[in-house]
Amino acid sequence: MTVTVEIARRGTAPAPRRWVCPKCASEHDPAVVKENLSVCPACGYHQRIGARERIVQLADEGTFVEYWSHLRTLDPLDFVDLEPYPERVREAQGASGLTEALVAGPAAIGGTPCVLAVMDFGFMGGSMGSVVGEKLWRAAAVAADEGRPLVAVASSGGARMQEGALSLMQMAKTTCAVDVLNDARVPFVAVMADPCTGGVVASFVSLADICVAEPGALLYFSGPRVIAQTTREQLPDDFGGAERNLALGHVDAVVPRAELKDKVANYLRLLKGGGQPDGLERRRSSRSRSSRTRRLARATSARVAAAFKNPGREPVGGSGTAPGSPEEPAP
Ligand SMILES: [Zn+2]
Questions:
Q1: To which H or E segment does residue 20 belong?
Q2: How much distance in Å is there from the Cα of 222 to the middle of ligand 1?
Q3: 252-303, pLDDT tens digit by residue?
Q4: Environment of ion ligand 1 (residues, CB < 5 A)
């Protein structure tokens, strides 16, 4: 445990707190780093950011409206580890100011209307439980219904262990959500932010039409230590890094945060017009699923749709704000 003690001479103002880059150890004024989109001005290290900050960076000013913030997780397993699950959720809500690990709603990016869904790693490691899966599902349903592209920013440690198998089921549910988008021919753009792992990278994120990552982001299903122990092989030093994932064809591009909004806006414009962004053909064709898999996905999708009748519009009030959360501010 590290204990930081600040000592200021009596009668003098305390020295301003400095932000120290964990990669290059350079020190900066936190306000300067914030102004630089939370990227180190010296080396380009991309600091993790929360969902609200991400939405401010990506969405056109004043366009994002949060939906479904009234959804709350249950405790179906009466799960207790070091503390009861409901207590852990309350702590995460208090620390983050969010109700869950995913914030979603309609927005516009570069003038193109879309549905934006952003995960927050600060909320229980961005873990995907029932509410995260439900919100992603509803976001996709609204996107398909209204013909708006879905833009998802994923940052997650994987499934939420406190909900057991119900968390794992969100992988199938969110995968079906992508299939709903495919059937509606609505584009899906995913951004992988550090870290993007486990059940999230193994479900909806990797199925996006265009999948980009931030520089240096860790993207993998299992961590290098687990894989090295299981396979008894030496893994490369850059295992799981965004740049290696690009070289292997898992992502389409590695985009610095300063360019992210313009890139996403460009993708949305091109996909809306039926164009094909340069350099993306290889991955799109290589990820084509077999007809048998697609039939299975469609059948599963229909079953999920029947279980969640009219999921997109029912919870949304006529004013465009989610019931029970009129106080939620738009950035
Ligand atoms: Zn740095």
A1: strand 19-20
A2: 27
A3: 999 999 999 999 999 999 998 655 554 444 444 444 444 544 555 565 566 5
A4: 21, 23-24, 40, 42-43, 45
Domains and their CATH numbers in the chain: 47-307 (3.90.226.10)
- The alpha carbon of 58 and the centre of ligand 1 are apart by a number of angstroms equal to 23
Closest CA to 98 of 70, 137, 74: 70
Q: How far is the CA of 18 from the centre of ligand 1 (A)?
A: 13
| Helical pair 291-307 and 164-184, crossing angle rounded to 10 deg | 110
DSSP state at residue 26: -
CA–CA dist 170, 174 (Å, integer) = 6
Q: How far apart are CA 85 and CA 65, in angstroms?
A: 29
Q: HEC profile for 95-134? A: HHCCCCCEEEEEEEECCEEEEEEEECCCCHHHCECHHHHH
Give the pLDDT band (50/70/90) at residue 6. low
Q: Enter the pTM of the model.
A: 0.80
Q: Distance between CA 109 and CA 55 in Å, rounded?
A: 10
Sequence-distant (6+) residues with CB within 8 A of 44 are 215, 256
Q: For residues 133 and 101, is the Cβ–Cβ distance under 8 A?
A: no
Do 131 and 100 meet the contact criterion of CB atoms below 8 Å apart? yes
Beta bridge partners of 316: none
- Per-residue model confidence as pLDDT tens digits over 206-231: 999 999 999 999 999 998 889 999 99
Cα of 23 vs centre of ligand 1, distance in Å, is: 5
Residue type, 34: K
